[in-house]
Design brief:
The strands form two sheets. Strands 3-4-6-8-7-9-10-11-12-13-14 form an eleven-stranded mixed β-sheet, sandwiched between helices. A three-stranded mixed β-sheet has the order 1-2-5, with no helix packed on it. About 35% of the residues lie in helices and about 10% in strands. It is of the alpha/beta class.
Length: about 800
């Protein structure tokens, strides 16, 4: 019986197999069917097989994804700490349907979280799933190209007369992460590509020690992460046409550290491209970052490189040997070293190497290095939230003592005066106190967030916009005033650092994700559609207002307010910007008072306190710690140093900076010293004038005894007067030439503001002989500006590159 059942079962299986074969023979797979889900393209390096993915939205078309595409050779072995090289060609078809490893990093180190978005630090367990597969062979990019399938493709494009068959603009995203963390794999570009009809590219680049270590010389110049980004742009410009992208319309955009990278790329001559007809990119969107921020550039690379070498047992005396030793260490051993930078700065980041970054970013901006690019940039309302999260009792506001501590720590970390910083600290506290509600802890908390927002983001961004728009280059500025509702942030917070990112990538259209667990509303969906339209319009035309009009009736039955708003260009005079929120509007002069405070007043205070510091006493000792004098210079006026009892034992050596073992308040002594000095100066002037009058009177009496033509007498008097004036000038003004206008900020101030205090060239006693009496009344204050008054926009030396002409 059992045998019969087995035979019948076998026969049934055989009949089913025969039927399946017959059906397949009458329905052979076509080429179109096989390519529907696995499209194939041919690049200059070989064939790639991608994956067609439907977007979870009724109004969005599918997207072809090509993941893990190599854009450079693996930077391993002797290629570590070296510029990237182009990838090797491959044979056959390379599978590009999954992500490749990310660059080595350690999210559990105490990285500078104050510069990280909350959605990153709040979801570290989720972030860990994106970066668990790590390798030095990490230089890969991901391409998201929209298809022509779906209802949305024909409906929206027909309205703006853009054919899908035309090459699409390309948007390349540079991820952030304090130069130490992150990956392009975390940002899915499918929604942005589908909604905006653009090709979106995300990428990995070397970060942290492997991406930015520098010895300050040819042994390891640094900036490998930036060179990776440039190599990726080079690959994109040559191959993106195979994916439907337009190499003549490439826009680079990023947020936070990614924005500072974008800002630096606009200043690098490498971005112009070699053997590339149209340049590597043409427009830039800089979200919440700038090359002028204190954390954008590392001014102390050698310090942290030596610190790393000592920890892993490498020779620090010879840079070539040190780099060779570091190349032999495992990537894991290097990444696990927790090298901490000073607050508000980075240990491993871009450096001024004379090549990729040829000079200080502000100097390059002043010279017009980025004028060839259209730029859109902006900030969020409450960028500085993470800076104050470590203040106690934050939920109930900020107490007066905590407010004082936060401001003092800020001044100490960024300015580092051994004395004389009290006025600067008190001035900052005065400016960021709401005097109408000064005792309210919640108000104090709000103003403290504003302090860090203004200094770290707003002022650098506004200065960047001013310098770019000065010569008429297309510039658009925005202020983002919206954020999603979630448990990641306190209910009292405003739009914090990185809060615009989910709206740029269209996350509200598909609902909450593991990285963005927000309760998205219809307003969030509408605002995301608005932001994506602005961003992709800018990528298409350089104007966020066109070619696609603002229209979100597919979300709301009524028109949104953005349809009635035209985003105006930014210029240094009107300073118009777009307020992006549920109530959009065009406004002008974003936080102008606070920007002027950091841009104009603080430099004057900075310069005055240099003078006070070095005129308060003539007692000098050599530095207790040799590293403390690094970067400081003595005066160069030629005036001999003041001899003191404390300085006799130095044997004529150059005096180090002043170090007070018992710092205290010298305001009274300073006032007395300045008053006495000014009085003595005034008495000297009177005495000199009396002597001059007597000498002039005697000279006239002598000449009256010898008749001469009136013309000659008048000429002699003029000549004599000029000589005396010149003598007066040389005796009175020459010794204090450096202090002729003590309230005029040094042009290098804004550079020093972003550097470590050890790098600030302070004024020494050699510069100082007399204190002008104008110092007492502070009457000579003149506005600080890196450009002279009345600077003509027609004076641009060249079309783009001025440092290389």
């Amino acid at each position: 019986m059992m045998l019969l059942l087995v035979d019948q079962g076998t026969a049934t299986v055989a009949r089913c197999a025969l039927l399946w074969w017959m059906l397949c023979s009458y329905w052979p797979p076509t080429k179109a069917t096989s390519q529907k889900f696995y499209p194939t393209v041919t690049t200059q390096f070989g064939k790639l097989r991608g994956l067609r993915v439907p977007v979870p939205s009724e109004v969005l078309r599918p997207v072809d994804q090509y993941l893990g595409v190599p854009y450079a050779a693996p930077p391993v072995g002797e290629k570590r700490f070296m510029p990237p090289e182009q990838p090797s060609p491959w044979s056959g078809v390379k599978n590009a349907t999954h992500f490749m490893p990310v660059c080595p990093q350690n999210i559990h180190n105490t990285a500078p979280e104050i510069m990280m978005p909350i959605w990153f630090t709040y979801n570290l367990d989720t972030v860990a799933t994106y970066i668990q597969d790590q390798s030095e062979d990490c230089l890969y990019l991901n391409i998201y190209a929209p298809t022509e399938d779906g209802e949305w493709g024909g409906k929206k494009r027909a309205a703006v007369n853009i054919r899908d068959s035309e090459a699409r603009p390309v948007m390349v995203y540079i991820h952030g992460g304090s130069y130490m963390e992150g990956t392009g794999n975390m940002m899915d570009g499918s929604i942005l590509a589908s909604y905006g009809n653009v090709v979106v590219v995300t990428l990995n680049y070397r970060i942290g020690i492997l991406g930015f270590l520098s010895t300050g010389d040819q042994a390891a110049k640094g900036n490998y992460g930036l060179l990776d980004q440039i190599q990726a742009l080079r690959w994109i410009s040559k191959n993106i046409g195979y994916f439907g992208g337009d190499p003549r319309r490439i826009t680079v955009f990023g947020s936070g550290i990614g924005a500072s990278c974008v800002s630096l790329l606009t200043l690098s001559h490498h971005s112009e491209g070699k053997n590339v007809t149209f340049g590597l990119f043409h427009r830039a969107i800089i979200q919440s970052g700038s090359a002028l921020s204190s954390w954008a550039v590392n001014y102390h690379p050698v310090k942290y490189t030596r610190m790393l070498a000592e920890r892993v047992g490498c020779n620090v005396l010879d840079t070539v040997d040190m780099v060779s030793c570091l190349q032999k260490k495992s990537a894991k051993e290097l990444v696990e070293q927790d090298i901490q930078a000073d607050r508000y700065r980075v240990a491993f980041g871009p450096v001024i190497d004379g090549d990729v970054i040829p000079d200080d970013p502000e100097i390059l901006m002043e010279q017009g290095e980025f004028l060839n690019y259209d730029i859109m940039l902006g900030v969020n309302q409450g960028e500085g939230l993470r800076f104050v999260e470590n203040v106690m009792d934050l939920e109930d506001g900020v107490s007066g003592s905590d407010f004082d501590f936060a401001v003092s720590d800020f001044v100490d970390s960024l300015y580092g005066y051994p004395e004389g910083k009290d006025t600067l600290r008190e001035t900052i506290k005065f400016m960021y106190t709401d005097w109408a509600d000064k005792d309210n802890p919640e108000t104090r908390r709000k103003t403290l967030v504003a302090l860090f927002t203004d200094h770290q983001w707003v002022e650098p961004s506004v200065v960047t916009a001013d310098l770019h728009a000065r010569y008429g280059s297309p510039t658009y500025f925005y202020a983002f005033y919206h954020h999603c509702q979630s448990l990641m942030k306190p209910v009292w917070s405003d739009s914090a650092h990185g809060d615009e990112v989910p709206y740029v990538f269209g996350i509200p259209m598909v609902g909450p994700t593991d990285l963005f667990p927000c309760n998205f509303s219809r307003n969030d969906i509408m605002l995301s559609a608005v932001v994506m339209t602005y961003w992709t319009n800018f990528a298409k035309s350089g104007d966020p207002n066109k070619p696609v009009p603002q229209d979100t009736k597919f979300i709301h039955t009524k028109a949104n307010r953005f349809e009635e708003v035209a985003w105006s260009k930014y210029d240094p005079y009107d300073q118009l910007y777009l307020h992006i929120g549920l109530k959009p509007r065009i406004r002008d002069h974003y936080r102008a008072t606070k920007v002027a405070f950091w841009k104009h007043l603080v430099p004057h205070l900075y310069n005055i306190h240099d003078i006070f510091h070095y005129s308060s006493t003539t007692t000098k000792v050599t530095p207790l710690d040799p590293t403390q004098s690094n970067g400081k210079r003595s005066g160069g006026t030629g005036r001999p140093p003041v001899s003191t009892a404390h300085g006799e034992g130095d044997g004529g050596r150059e005096m180090g900076p002043l170090i007070m073992p018992n710092p205290r308040d010298y305001s009274t002594e300073l006032s007395v010293t300045i008053a006495v000095g000014a009085s003595l100066l005034f008495l000297n002037v009177l005495a000199f004038a009396a002597l001059y009058y007597r000498k002039d009177k005697r000279s006239r009496q002598e000449t009256s005894q010898q008749p001469s033509p009136q013309r000659e007498s008048k000429g002699n008097n003029v000549s004599h007067t000029n000589t005396v004036d010149e003598t007066l000038s040389s005796q009175q003004r020459s010794p204090c030439d450096a202090l002729h206008n003590p309230l005029h900020a040094s042009p290098s101030y804004s550079l020093s503001q972003r550097r470590s205090p050890d790098d600030i060239p302070l004024m020494t006693p050699n510069n100082i002989s007399l204190i002008p009496n104008s110092l007492m009344g502070l009457s000579n204050m003149s506005p600080y500006s890196t450009f002279p008054a009345g600077y003509s926009s027609t004076g641009l030396p060249s079309t783009h590159s001025t440092t290389r002409v």
